[in-house]
Design a protein that fits this description.
The complex is a heterodimer of chains A (290) and B (105). By secondary structure, chain A is an all-alpha fold. Chain A has two domains: 52 residues; 233 residues, no CATH class. In chain A, 77% of the residues lie in helices and 0% in strands. Chain A contains ten helices and no strands. Chain A is globular, with a radius of gyration of 23 Å. Chain B is mainly alpha-helical. Chain B has a single domain, classed as Arc Repressor Mutant, subunit A (Orthogonal Bundle). Chain B has five helices and two strands. A two-stranded antiparallel sheet of chain B has the order 1-2. Chain B is globular and about 50 Å long. Classes of the chains: A mainly alpha (290), B mainly alpha (105). The interface between A and B is medium-sized, with 19 and 19 residues.
Chain lengths: 290, 105
Amino acid sequence: MTRIAWWMVESLSRLLDDGEREVVRGDLAECGTRAAHALREVVGLVIRRQAVMWCDWRPWFVMASVVVPIGLLLSYASRSWGVTSAHDISIYWRFWDFSYLAVPGWRRDVIDVAVRIGSGCLALVGWSWTCGFVLGRFSRRTVWLTGLMFAVVVFFGTLGTTIAGQPPENPSLRYHVVFVVLPRFFRTFLVVLPLAWGAYHGSKASSPRLGRTLLGVAVLAGATFLVSQGLERSLVFGGLVPADPGPDGFLISADDPRPLWFLSLVMMWPAAYILAEASRERGTRRPSRA
Amino acid sequence: MQLGEFEYLMLTAVARLGDGAYGVAIRQEIEDATGRPCSLGALYTTIDRLEQKGLVKTSMGDPTPQRGGRPKRMVRITSKGTQAATTFYNAVIRVSRGVAWSAAK
């Protein structure tokens, strides 16, 4: 118990500035404070420090503009694409035949599926990384909390909704993999980990290089363009937005109205911010070199 | 400069301790004087506030073995801090004149 409490003291004190952390741990050592009391002291100090930081507008701005809206969209998109990708992969896995590549129509189907899965994965990673970067850049010292909230929104944003209907009474292993494991895999490896990676980069003082940023934003914009309809459908089939099949009365046909087209722009604003920052940084660096 | 009660206590402790004013010593001084526990959170957030007001200055002291090789945060009162504490003290003296608290019990 004591070791756990000291481990918690050690972990929590990392939320303090480097200098303050050393001073506080020195104070605790000098007073010979017991583990439980030390934990209480550090928790109190961390809460006070966090409270002061949340008096600033930046953490609230990223909560309102990134964590809640984009976290929710990523929650729906990652679940939907996790399920559809798992469906496609499991079908090809089961019935794979190399003749799929020989017949032009079948080959096109394979390529379509590969492009859809690839661009979906790329878009999820890119959106999450850029969101993490913005969280880290706007409010470095609250990033652990805003990042945690982002992960909570991603994992629980679709709670109470389903795209699979009622689960069977005795779900098969395949059902479990397709509807449970894959969405979680997508959320963990394509959303939360890139988010943490982006937050780490955003927290650092250095700005991204313009050339690399331009390339990254162009790739992400391309992936976003390819998956924009899929993003909208993930909300429709996830039950967040009512479905409108358009004049022909059939869903997923060419005449479906797209009132949510602007969501792609919402997903791209963190990337646009990073690009703007990289451009500004280059602009300010140039005169000093001259 | 407006001072709170705890800020005044801290300035007094820092002034009393002189060159030996740092986290643990200030805390001990306040606890001895008030008979109430003083948390690290209250201590360091108040020191920061006083520093922002320009009433104290802080610096990092040398690491000591007693502290596991970690430094102290030394605190020194400024002339502005001395003035603010004097003003607060005079106000307390003035407002207390003619009141016998021990008799009122």
